[in-house]
C-alpha cells in the first residue's frame, strides 16, 4: 500500500467515528429530555385548585400566587348552566386537591360528577353558599323559588366570596396562609374601587333611562346594588325560552321609557335581543344593541376583560355610556 493511502484511510476512519458519535449523541437527547421532564413532574408538590368558572378562578389564582396551582374548568365562552361534563372534565375534577364551585345550581349539569367526588371524601366547596341566604336574591314563580347564583355581579358580595376562597386556600396550604391573607387585602381594595366606580357611573344615567335589558336574567345583583332596573328576554337559566307575550311586554317598556339601548351577552344567543329591536322599530322607536356584556363567562384569557375586574369594568362602562351616563371610554383602569 502506498504512503499516500495511509493518511486517507486514517481520515476516513476519524470521520466515521465522529459521525457515529454525533448520531449516538442525538439519540441520547430525547432520553435525557424525557428524564428531566419526569423529574420536574415528580418535583411538583403544590396542591391543585380547580375552579368551575372563571370568576372564581381569577380570585383563587390571585390569592394563591405561586404557593398553589390553579386551573379553571369552564373557559371563556362556555355556559355553566348548560355545560355537560366530558370525560376530560371528570378526570380533572378527580385529580384536583380542591374544587371550588359557585353552587346555587349554577353548574346544574355538573352536579352528578361533583357529588361523586364528594362521596369519595374529596373536598368540593360551593363558595357562593358562603353568602348568607338573606342576602341572596330569590328567583322563580310561587312554589318554585331558588337562589340567583350570579353573585359575582355585585363586587361587594364577591368580596365575601373572596374571603371564603382565602379561607379554603389557607386550610389547604397552611404555610402560605400569611401570604394569602396579604394578597386578600389587595383583592378587597380592588373590589372596593370597582364598587365605587360602578356606583358613580350608574348614578350618572338619567333616572328614566335606568333600565338594563339583557339576554338572560344574570344582572339582578348588579341592579339591586346600583339602583338600576333589570329586565331580560330569558329567565335565570339560559335554557329557558321567552314567550311572545313577554317579548311584547319588554318592547312596550322600551318604547314607554324611551330606552335607547339593549345588550347581548357573550355566552347567550342573540336571537331574543334582536326580537326586541325589531318589535320596537315596528312601534316607531329605535333601539340599538349597544354591545356585548359578560355575564356567565368572562373575556378571552390573557386579556384585561378576561379578569374579574376587567369584566365588570367593561360591563359598567358599556352600560353607562349606552344609556346616556358619564363614564370614560377606556373605563376604570384606562384599559378598555
From TrEMBL:
This is Periplasmic zinc-binding protein TroA. Keywords: Metal-binding, Signal, Transport. Belongs to the bacterial solute-binding protein 9 family. One of its GO terms (molecular function) is metal ion binding. It is found in: Cell envelope. One of its GO terms (cellular component) is cell envelope. GO terms for biological process: cell adhesion; metal ion transport. PANTHER family: HIGH-AFFINITY ZINC UPTAKE SYSTEM PROTEIN ZNUA-RELATED (PTHR42953), METAL-BINDING PROTEIN HI_0362-RELATED (PTHR42953:SF1). It holds the Pfam family ZnuA. It comes from Rohdeia mirabilis. Signal peptide: none annotated.
Amino acid at each position: 500500500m502506498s504512503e499516500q493511502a495511509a493518511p486517507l484511510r486514517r481520515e476516513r476512519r476519524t470521520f466515521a467515528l465522529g459521525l457515529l458519535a454525533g448520531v449516538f449523541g442525538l439519540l441520547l437527547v430525547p432520553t435525557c429530555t424525557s428524564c428531566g421532564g419526569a423529574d420536574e413532574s415528580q418535583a411538583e408538590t403544590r396542591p391543585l385548585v380547580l375552579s368551575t368558572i372563571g370568576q372564581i378562578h381569577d380570585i383563587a389564582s390571585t390569592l394563591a400566587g405561586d404557593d398553589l396551582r390553579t386551573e379553571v374548568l369552564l373557559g371563556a365562552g362556555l355556559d355553566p348552566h348548560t355545560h355537560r361534563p366530558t370525560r376530560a372534565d371528570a378526570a380533572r375534577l378527580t385529580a384536583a386537591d380542591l374544587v371550588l364551585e359557585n353552587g346555587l345550581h349554577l353548574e346544574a349539569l355538573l352536579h352528578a360528577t361533583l357529588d361523586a367526588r364528594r362521596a369519595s371524601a374529596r373536598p368540593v366547596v360551593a363558595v357562593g353558599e358562603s353568602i348568607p341566604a338573606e342576602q341572596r336574591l330569590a328567583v322563580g314563580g310561587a312554589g318554585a323559588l331558588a337562589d340567583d347564583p350570579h353573585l359575582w355581579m355585585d363586587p361587594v358580595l364577591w368580596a365575601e366570596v373572596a374571603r371564603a376562597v382565602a379561607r379554603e386556600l389557607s386550610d389547604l396550604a397552611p404555610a402560605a396562609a400569611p401570604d394569602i391573607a396579604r394578597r386578600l387585602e389587595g383583592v378587597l381594595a380592588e373590589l372596593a374601587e370597582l364598587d365605587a366606580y360602578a356606583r358613580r357611573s350608574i348614578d350618572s344615567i338619567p333616572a328614566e333611562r335606568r333600565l338594563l335589558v339583557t339576554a338572560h336574567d344574570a344582572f339582578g345583583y348588579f341592579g339591586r346594588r346600583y339602583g338600576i332596573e333589570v329586565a331580560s328576554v330569558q329567565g335565570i337559566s339560559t335554557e329557558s325560552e321567552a314567550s311572545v307575550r313577554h317579548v311584547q311586554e319588554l318592547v312596550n317598556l322600551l318604547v314607554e321609557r324611551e330606552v335607547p339601548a339593549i345588550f347581548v351577552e357573550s355566552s347567550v344567543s342573540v336571537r331574543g335581543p334582536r326580537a326586541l329591536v325589531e318589535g320596537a322599530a315596528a312601534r316607531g322607536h329605535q333601539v340599538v344593541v349597544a354591545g356585548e356584556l359578560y355575564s356567565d363567562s368572562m373575556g378571552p384569557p390573557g386579556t384585561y376583560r378576561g379578569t374579574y375586574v376587567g369584566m365588570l369594568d367593561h360591563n359598567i362602562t358599556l352600560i353607562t355610556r349606552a344609556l346616556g351616563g358619564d363614564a370614560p371610554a377606556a373605563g376604570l383602569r384606562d384599559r378598555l
